[in-house]
Amino acid sequence: MAIHKLKFFACRESRYLAEKIAKSFGSELGDSTVLEFSDGEFQPAYNESIRGCTVFIVQSTFPPADNLMELLLMIDAAHRASAHRVIAVMPYFGWARQDRKDRPRVSIGAKLVANLLRAAGVDRIMTMDLHADQIQGFFDIPVDHLYASGIFVPYMKGLQMENLSIAAPDMGGAKRANAYSQHLNAPMIISHKQREKPNVVGQMTAIGDISDRNIIIVDDMIDTAGTITKAADMFMERGARSVRAAVTHPLLSGPAYDRINKSALSEVIVTDTIPLKQSEDLSKFTVLTVADIFSDVIERVHNYKEISSRFIF
């Protein structure tokens, strides 16, 4: 089977991660630029030939919406430049919280994004820790859904903590927490929260043994940090030894950094799918890179190898 030449490119907001992925692969980023107009419109362009190549474009689609639009334009430009295949590497898949019609007269944003990506001409998607697994079914093309557990679990084992418990910040995260607890042979705690409105947590309770435990809260994303910090404070009030959080996508909007620094959390372990704000106090944060995971899977996909062995859960 003929193997087409591989080239890496990056959109602007994920260039820092794309450089790590390319370096891990033993390559470097291709040459691309973005022409900006005074009204805010922009036009990406490839400054080298990609005819007949397999093109990997790295971009996490966190806000603002320009990040998604830039990815769509890069995909479209690659096809118009006669690329053989265009693969979108989306470490963070934005709009994933809109995966169903949970109230009347709302859109299903994740499905709309899937349609936009397909209309732009993408041939394959690579992403990590989707907010909802069923989003894979929104695509009629292959979706490689990777898991940050491949780097979180070894780090957690390296902490060598006694009386370890894994906690879910809400009922929706119970499946993820259960997978971690089984892999680490640690008991699970489930938090139950009642939201007053989006991004505002009301009452919170917990199911499981908390007293004298070292607790790690696991989740796929952290936005305003209201849920995780409230859970951490509750655990410490109920006698926990320590509370950490391991979260894949650090959106960290609004008062998130301030809440974390004022909370009972002793450490927040995140990945580099989304960059942290260097202007903030990051003393509680530990950042683990996902570059090696994506690099390895890219090599396997490009050379038509199996990738299932790369998944822990």
UniProtKB/TrEMBL annotation:
<dbReference type="InterPro" id="IPR005946">
    <property type="entry name" value="Rib-P_diPkinase"/>
</dbReference>
<dbReference type="GO" id="GO:0005737">
    <property type="term" value="C:cytoplasm"/>
</dbReference>
<protein>
    <recommendedName>
        <fullName>ribose-phosphate diphosphokinase</fullName>
        <ecNumber>2.7.6.1</ecNumber>
    </recommendedName>
</protein>
<dbReference type="GO" id="GO:0006164">
    <property type="term" value="P:purine nucleotide biosynthetic process"/>
</dbReference>
<dbReference type="InterPro" id="IPR029099">
    <property type="entry name" value="Pribosyltran_N"/>
</dbReference>
<keyword id="KW-0460">Magnesium</keyword>
<dbReference type="GO" id="GO:0009156">
    <property type="term" value="P:ribonucleoside monophosphate biosynthetic process"/>
</dbReference>
<feature type="domain" description="Ribose-phosphate pyrophosphokinase N-terminal">
    <location>
        <begin position="6"/>
        <end position="121"/>
    </location>
</feature>
<keyword id="KW-0479">Metal-binding</keyword>
<dbReference type="GO" id="GO:0016301">
    <property type="term" value="F:kinase activity"/>
</dbReference>
<dbReference type="Pfam" id="PF14572">
    <property type="entry name" value="Pribosyl_synth"/>
</dbReference>
<dbReference type="InterPro" id="IPR000842">
    <property type="entry name" value="PRib_PP_synth_CS"/>
</dbReference>
<keyword id="KW-0963">Cytoplasm</keyword>
<keyword id="KW-0547">Nucleotide-binding</keyword>
<dbReference type="GO" id="GO:0002189">
    <property type="term" value="C:ribose phosphate diphosphokinase complex"/>
</dbReference>
<dbReference type="InterPro" id="IPR029057">
    <property type="entry name" value="PRTase-like"/>
</dbReference>
<dbReference type="InterPro" id="IPR000836">
    <property type="entry name" value="PRTase_dom"/>
</dbReference>
<keyword id="KW-0808">Transferase</keyword>
<keyword id="KW-0067">ATP-binding</keyword>
<dbReference type="Pfam" id="PF13793">
    <property type="entry name" value="Pribosyltran_N"/>
</dbReference>
<dbReference type="GO" id="GO:0005524">
    <property type="term" value="F:ATP binding"/>
</dbReference>
<dbReference type="GO" id="GO:0006015">
    <property type="term" value="P:5-phosphoribose 1-diphosphate biosynthetic process"/>
</dbReference>
<dbReference type="GO" id="GO:0004749">
    <property type="term" value="F:ribose phosphate diphosphokinase activity"/>
</dbReference>
<keyword id="KW-0545">Nucleotide biosynthesis</keyword>
<keyword id="KW-0418">Kinase</keyword>
<dbReference type="GO" id="GO:0000287">
    <property type="term" value="F:magnesium ion binding"/>
</dbReference>
